[in-house]
């Protein structure tokens, strides 16, 4: 992934981005810092709560998605950051021990008119768990350098 | 915030949710785990990169927003989790030393038809920095229990 540019993202193409396991320790650590709701940080309360057990903060799930996106989709040579996310959905709970694998589809690759050295990528990223249930989807926007621009 | 229910979120109302400081150490720690792009984890590379210095991962910024939302907007007594985010925008970089304050507006509070014990909240959450620049916005969805339902 070290050498990938805007021209290499083909509209309509899909890619697998690998998988990642989620541990109870990591769920507790993340949520204690950023999202300390009972069903994220307190196993007994979570067991008696709306999800019947501990679940990962949705922001933790999104961050795990990002880890796979940085590892296998974006390139340090061309990634210029993101203006945002168009739609993000937490479809199913993520629980301790789950293994999430990511898949991405390039929805749109549009050259920038105002900044000709880059383009804007719209990508649908999905996470599925070990039971093949889709737990998370997001339409991500990313600015990516064009190949010729890297010489400047 | 320990005793707040669906009925207490009034459409059109706005609230301040307090503020939080962002340190370089925390930016590096979060991004090293979840978003290790050069402008998030490598200060010299970041200084030479598109943002002219280190910036926080957008997922870190979102997680800091969530921290203030859990502290001052949602209630452990009634918060049932979230189906997603309708639109999220990273408008300005968040840099080490920034202080972010959150404000929220209740866009819509809609009783659920299929599950009468709860309602769906649509909220616009904004983060501003110490220079009063809006750095982040998101339209968040949250399921929240109705007051009468907590007796069951």
Automatic annotation (TrEMBL), chains A, B:
Membrane-crossing segments per the record: none
InterPro entries with a match to the protein in the record: HotDog_dom_sf, MaoC-like_dom, MCH/BMMD
Record domain MaoC-like: where: 18-113
Classification via SUPFAM superfamilies: Thioesterase/thiol ester dehydrase-isomerase
PANTHER family for this protein: BETA-METHYLMALYL-COA DEHYDRATASE, MONOAMINE OXIDASE-RELATED
Family from the record: Belongs to the enoyl-CoA hydratase/isomerase family.
Protein name from the UniProt record: Acyl dehydratase
């Amino acid at each position: 992934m070290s050498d990938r540019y805007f021209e290499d993202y083909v509209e309509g193409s899909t890619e697998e981005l690998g998988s990642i396991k989620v541990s109870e320790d990591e769920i507790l650590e993340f949520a204690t810092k950023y999202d300390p709701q009972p069903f994220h940080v307190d196993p007994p309360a979570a067991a008696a709560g709306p999800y019947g057990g501990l679940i990962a903060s949705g922001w933790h799930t999104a961050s795990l998605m990002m880890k796979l996106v940085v590892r296998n989709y974006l390139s340090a040579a061309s990634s210029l950051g993101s203006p945002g996310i168009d739609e993000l959905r937490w479809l199913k709970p993520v629980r301790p021990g789950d293994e999430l694998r990511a898949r991405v589809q390039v929805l749109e690759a549009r050259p920038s008119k105002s900044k000709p050295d880059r383009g804007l990528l719209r990508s649908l990223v999905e996470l599925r768990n070990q039971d093949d249930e889709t737990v998370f989807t997001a339409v991500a926007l990313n600015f990516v350098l064009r190949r010729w621009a890297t010489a400047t």
